[in-house]
Amino acid sequence: MNQSATTRRPEQPVSSRIQGATLPRWTPWALAGASVALSVGVGLLFDLHSRVQWGLLAALLFVLLTYGVAARVEGRRQARDRVATSVVWVAFVLAVIPLASLIWETVKRGVTVLDGYFLSHSMGVVADTEPGGGIYHALIGTLEQVGIATLVAVPIGVLTAIYLVEYGRGKLAAAVTFFVDVMTGIPSIVAGLFVLSFWILILDLGPSGFAGSLALAILMMPVVVRSTEEMLKLVPNELREASLALGVPKWRTILKVVLPTSIGGITTGVMLAVARITGETAPVLLLVWGTNFINNNPFEGAQASLPLYIYQQYANSAGSGAAYDRAWAAALTLIAFVMILNLVARGIARWKAPKTGR
């Protein structure tokens, strides 16, 4: 028998026989580049001046080209999968671009006057239309008001969450949960009006940083309650049962087992709540009133804050580039403050996270 006739070719694997054509990995990048080039061409052809229109057209073309090319090469089923992935990436890019543009614009305009002098001086003897001055008085006011609001809201919020998770049963727990949900959606101006009617109109105590802190605490409490409640629910029940089986009282189990296990997530939620109230302007405008002088006493007299300082400088920036630059520099300082809080929260969460290794 002929040796060549008896020699058989090795059979291909089943996966390679049933697998159809596949687009190369660089295809999405090529389609993205082609979409951008086509959108620019269409924009120039039809005289579209807005680059936002160019970007939206490029996103639409990217999705359409992805479906067309994938359907022709890989089939309609795989094309639908690629279209879903493309839509997710387009949504991500559309969300990131405004954020990156905001940060870039703030940094570009804010660095013009942001220096040590700006951070260590107030506006006490400087008119809004004159160059100079700084945000020291507003920075002190923001730190004191946010700090007092945190001291008021965090203990109440954490204890409320512990009650709802560990003890809450029946109608009272349902009522507390309902009111926490309602408070989550309360506008900041409503919280400011509530404290205004009680603190200033009824008690006649006048504007102060502490009054603003009370309104900020009202806005902060539901965020702390919700975040702490979710973190406590993530603690395995086996840990509680093991502690209780050893005869440890429930309050001590919560204090020594439940809270240490979830402290990282609780801290992250508190930091996010602090970041949420740091930029509030309406309660401060109603209750603190603002001043150009340094007031280190949050319990007496008007006090400044960074959000109110930004508003006042921008409102008085007509015909004055100095006030406009100060507003952008204060906005950059506020963004940096919130960013530092988020980085601290992430660091604490990672530091306090349960160790999985031996």
Description:
This protein is an all-alpha fold. It has helices at residues 3-6, 14-18, 27-45, 51-73, 76-110, 116-120, 136-167, 170-184, 188-202, 209-233, 237-245, 250-278, 282-287, 306-315, 321-352. Helix 5 crosses helix 15 (321-352), helix 8 crosses helix 10 (209-233) and helix 9 (188-202) packs across helix 10. The radius of gyration is 29 Å and the shape is flat. The termini are far apart. Mean pLDDT is 87; it is low at 12-18.
Question: What are the defining features of this structure?
Answer:
358 residues; mainly alpha; 15 helices; flat
Task: Outline the fold blueprint.
Blueprint: H1 3-6, H2 14-18, H3 27-45, H4 51-73, H5 76-110, H6 116-120, H7 136-167, H8 170-184, H9 188-202, H10 209-233, H11 237-245, H12 250-278, H13 282-287, H14 306-315, H15 321-352
Helix pairs in contact: 3-4, 4-5, 5-15, 7-10, 7-12, 7-14, 8-10, 9-10, 10-12, 11-12, 12-15, 14-15
